[in-house]
Amino acid sequence: MILRTIKNKVENLIIFLLSIIITIILFKIIISFKGNASSFIQKDDLEGFTIVFLSIIFEAIPFVMIGAFVSSIIQIFVSEQFIAKIIPKSRFIGLIAASLMGFIFPVCECAIVPIMRRLIKKGVPLHIAVTFMLAVPIVNPVVLASTYYAFSGQAYMVFLRGILGLIGAIIIGHLIGKIQNKKTPLKHETNHEHHSCSCGYHYHSQQSNRRDIVSKIINIIQHTSSELYNVGKFLIIGALLSALMQTFISRSYILSIGHGIVSSSIVMMILAFVLSLCSEADAFIARTFVGQFTTGSIVGFLIFGSMIDIKNTLMLSGSFKLKFVIKLIATISIVCFIITMMVNIVGF
Amino acid sequence: MKKLNINELIWFIILSSFAYYIYKLFNTGKIYLYIHPRMFKYVYFSYVVFVILSISQIRSIFTPIKTNKIKIDYIVFIVPLFLAFVVNPNNLSGKVVSNKGVNLGNTSLKNIEKTITNEKEETLQSEIISDNDTNTDMYDDTDTNNNMDSDIYSESDDVDYYHNPDGVKFFEILVDTNEDLDRMLGEEVELIGFVFRDSDFTETRFVVSRLLITCCAADAQVVGLLCEWNESSKLEDDEWIKVSGIIESTTLYNEYLERDEILPLIKVTKLERIETCEDPYIYPYYN
């Protein structure tokens, strides 16, 4: 019996290693075609793609780690009862409080998904968690400061981004709460990979002595590790998609689609979604569009891009039901679009 | 003997390879290809976390096995590692980046210049020791006195403010010509960059260009100055060159703004092919 399992393991390992070697050989072949017009992937393209892909990962992973870490701390130190106690009874006050959390909790959008998921598991109402997730990456001192710099001191851009982002997040949180009602947005725990993930932290948390600091630290580390695994894979897939699009679809092509008030807003929102830039960096990119696009569509880029993008969508779909993710993205898009159009009509 | 938990072992290998790769990037200086120096501290942080996680993972390698199957999801983590080690990229070509937009110096660069002076102002204020008394007065009216500021800015180059001096020079000339082309007309400049050509360029024209990074390689843009040289057709795309020439101006149709635009143009007097530059990028917003 034991022998068989070991044999099984060895077999699996061999298959695994073999597949790696085969892929390496395949890549070597592709690379050796460099400069050859007959190969459809050029070395330049492959190198460029790799750099863009890895740079998105390197840029985002520290923040995902922070998110995973905070989420582990919440898991271990914050009890459901405590959360139930501090959540305001009034829906409206709760939403406003959630939207302002960014000031005391400055994380960008890469870190927010694991935290938000943990909060929902701990019993935070959905509308508050969603508002929190959408507002924190926008209303956050670091992001607002980088926006200020990028737009070289045009303070109204910071106000537009901050205030409209807040309003948008509150509206979306409220709507999503109403739409989803009491149904859980989370995937069924039993189907979730989490359980087959053999990090063993459930085991530890039962065993550990509450006062034992060392075991708590180990607990947090292992938790962070498993959280990184869960979120990291979706981050990587998101980065891969984004890098693919950036390398092979020309930006000027996307931009050439629209110049009207409506179409430019849509184009900028699509661009924000595709580029998957960190909310701390996107203002510097948005700045390069000043003069080519309306202020409204640039605000749309700044708000929508921080709320949702490819990598966030994938990270969300890792732990939430697909139907919920679609509803959420649809609501975010519609609300952001309306805000964008309002800015366009009022005119700045 | 304890049994090996393969899944945990693979996760350990993944974590430690990430740590190793980041270490290698810093060691070889290739990290400059990926991330703006401003972001280095975060990458260091992720390196430390990877190391901690790998060490703690060693313990788990011998935990009881719950499932026999190897988790297919690990492939996702192996893909980037795999690309990193196998492709081991050395440069980001202008052609790839040009997909994301080329900037021959239109309005948007002006904003960069202002940002630079603002940030420069901050760093100088924080380093009071290096600040001369005579300078401090000038910083009060940044907006009205842009030219003055950029002069001061270039004086303090000896401070190791940027990674690469060539890039700094390139960026300064770029900003100066954008800020006040009239003042720069007729001046002789020397630029180091790579050759970039758009499909609609005439035969004698090319752009001596650099990649501008604001955060990470994903936001790279091609920036540069248009050059005119009779033997341009002999140049290959992405070839590194040292251009000397005199600044003039020309008009080019801008398809976004849908009107002609006045752009700086360098009449090349001397051109030299050089080896691929170690630091292909320029990094504004250093802080």
Instruction: Report the sheet with the most strands of chain A, covering strand number, pairing sense and barrel closure.
Output: none
User: Biggest interface: chains and residue counts?
Assistant: A-B, 83 and 79 residues
Shape of chain B: elongated
Helix residue percentage of chain B? 40-55%
Notes on the structure:
The complex is a heterodimer of chains A (348) and B (287). Chain A is mostly helical. Chain A has one domain (45-346). Chain A is 76% helix and 0% strand. Chain A has helices spanning 2-32, 43-77, 80-86, 91-100, 109-121, 126-135, 141-150, 155-180, 193-196, 201-207, 213-248, 251-257, 261-275, 282-287, 295-307, 310-319, 322-346. In chain A, α4 (91-100) packs across α8, α8 runs antiparallel to α17 and α12 packs antiparallel against α13 (261-275). The longest helix of chain A has 36 residues, at 213-248. The termini of chain A are far apart. Chain B is an alpha/beta fold. Chain B has 2 domains: 6-90, no CATH class; 96-282, Nucleic acid-binding proteins (OB fold (Dihydrolipoamide Acetyltransferase, E2P), Beta Barrel). In chain B, 42% of the residues lie in helices and 21% in strands. Chain B is built from 10 helices and 7 strands. Chain B has a 5-stranded mixed barrel with strand order 2-3-4-6-5. In chain B, α1 runs parallel beside α4 (74-87). Chain B starts with 5 loop residues before the first helix and ends in a 5-residue tail after the last strand. Residues 106-162 of chain B have low confidence and may be disordered. Chains A and B meet through α1, α2, α11, α12 and α14 of A and α1, α3, α4, α5 and α6 of B.
